[in-house]
Amino acid sequence: MSLTRTLVPDGNYVDRYGFIRPLNDNTSTLNDSSTIRNNAQTSSAQKRKRRENKWVHMLSNWDYFITKNQRKVRDRCRKGIPDSCRAKAWFHVSGAARWRNLNKDLYRVLIERQPDEKWDTLIGRDLHRTLPHHILFADASGPGQEGLAEILRAYSIYNPSIGYCQALAPIAAVILLYMDREEAFWTLVRMCDVYMEDYFTDKMRGIQVDALVFGELIRRFLPKEHVIIKKLSVDPLIFSQNWFFCVYTRTLPWNIVLRIWDIYFFEGKWSLFRIGLVLLKYALFPVCENPKAYDDFTVLNTIQNFDTSSLDEEAFIAKSLEYKITVEDKRRISSACSRKFDKKANERKPAKVSSLVDVQSRRKRTFLTGVHSLLKTKGGNESPSRIWSRQATTGSSGKISGNGGTGGISTPVHSFSAESVGDSAVFSGESSSQPDGSSGGTPRSNGAASANNHGSPTDSIPPVFLSPYAPPRTTSMGNEDCCHQTMQCLPEVEN
Q1: Which pLDDT does position 391 carry in this prediction?
Q2: Per-residue CA distances from 336 to 240, 245, 325, 329 (Å)
Q3: Cα–Cα distance list, 73 to 49, 317, 396 (Å)
Q4: Residues 267/483, Cβ–Cβ less than 8 Å
Q5: 3-state helix, strand, coil in the chain (%, to 5)
Q6: 3-class secondary structure, 259
Q7: Gap between the Cα atoms of 62 and 94, Å rounded
Q8: Kind of pairing, strands 12-14 and 6-7?
Q9: Amino acid 365: pLDDT
Q10: What SS3 state is found at 202?
Q11: What is the pLDDT of residue 47?
């Protein structure tokens, strides 16, 4: 895009990134003037041209560079990808190109299908709220919103276990700024399945584990800031989830956002952690100077509303690269935080288990209450608790027999079923041979089994759609070290 500010009819201008800004906005969040100044000082036209030629050569020989010279790819991503090469570079560095080649006709099939009505409604509500000040998405009938809707609907069919999440829209919109719809779709797939694994599931395990990892990095690299947020009980998850979910698209100036994405597609989530450390250090600088003047609310507000318009692009990125995290540290911290999260999750009783335990307890109480009432009316010598224990251990026929000393009472257990205590959503049987619930009726469907079934038949979908994910990579680097698409064994690249 040209650096010239293009006037628009309503008196605003469109900046170099396509965002609509007021004419009197000299301190826009995009830091446009700072970017132009930096480019004039440090980047001549000849230098930009040389960088473009290097990227063109590298992308033309991609298989060689990504398998034999990863360090060169990493260094060039850190220096920034030229705008003219960004679309193709993101598509290859992320590994989306390989996944598209494995599923060449799948996107066409997906866009011809009708998405689930629930997801379609939610997607429609978020279209006008996604990058509303960008010229590509400003018009409801324009190509931006139409393309975004097509991509999100296709993904909801491709991965029905996630369907749609509000955080997907800004991610897809950023990709769509540089790529066509099919390439943007496969890049979104790659980000959700690899870079943000388990971010958009029901339990959101991925973002919670990453928040624990980020907290550990704060303790290691920012001891003063760690003491403050620890003392005030500020959970890093509260302020970091918006950073990681949207990859800083709603937090930082756009020129810095693009530089972050350039690095992110090669290095993965660890680049986001380093950016978060820099951002947290800048935001909490006044707090560290006078910590007694801040409470938990003001600290959290300071982090979330930190003025980023004056940040310098090159200095900010360079500062983030100063935090050195070795491959071994990444594996150790990730493993420890995963175990910590799983331990906490196991300590909390799952809702389904608790409900079944409650049903069992209520069935027993109802049984004993019914036996008490019968004993009062017809007499008997055996206690109700003993009758329950005997039937639960021996699995008797479900009759309260006179041979047991109950005064000749013979009544079926189904008179005291779980149905009578409000458990009809779990059990629907009218009789039970054992009061311990082993055959206490036919379980009713509570919707859990069909939560991910959106009523879309798969008969017309190619076989790859039933298992769309690429085989696991055998690289020694792992997802936490490099997110390229090759399946060959590769050397580890340190920071």
Answers
A1: 55
A2: 19, 22, 15, 10
A3: 18, 17, 72
A4: yes
A5: 60, 5, 40
A6: helix
A7: 12
A8: antiparallel
A9: 60
A10: coil
A11: 85
3-state secondary structure of 460: coil
254-267 vs 313-320: helix axis angle to the nearest 10?
30
Residue pLDDT, tens place only, 54-97: 999 999 999 999 999 999 999 999 999 999 999 999 999 999 99
Half-sphere exposure of 196 (CA within 13 A, CB side): 24
Q: Which pLDDT value is given to residue 294? A: 81
DSSP conformation letters of 147-195: HHHHHHHHHHHH-TTT---TTHHHHHHHHHTTS-HHHHHHHHHHIIIII
Other Cβ atoms less than 10 A from the Cβ of 181: the count is 19
Measured between alpha carbons, how far is 121 from 412 in angstroms, rounded to an integer? 51
Return the amino acid letter for 416.
F
Structure confidence at residue 3 (pLDDT):
40
CA distances from 338 to 18, 194, 326, 344, 413 (A): 40, 16, 18, 10, 47
- The structure's pTM equals 0.69
Q: CA torsion angle for 357, 361, 363, 367 (degrees, to 10)?
A: 160
Q: How many residues does the chain have?
A: 495
Residue spans of the chain under pLDDT 70: 1-10, 25-43, 348-495
Contact 456, 116 (CB under 8 A): yes
CA gap 160, 468 in Å, rounded = 12
Amino acid at 247: V
Q: Which two tokens stand for residue 62?
A: 């991609």
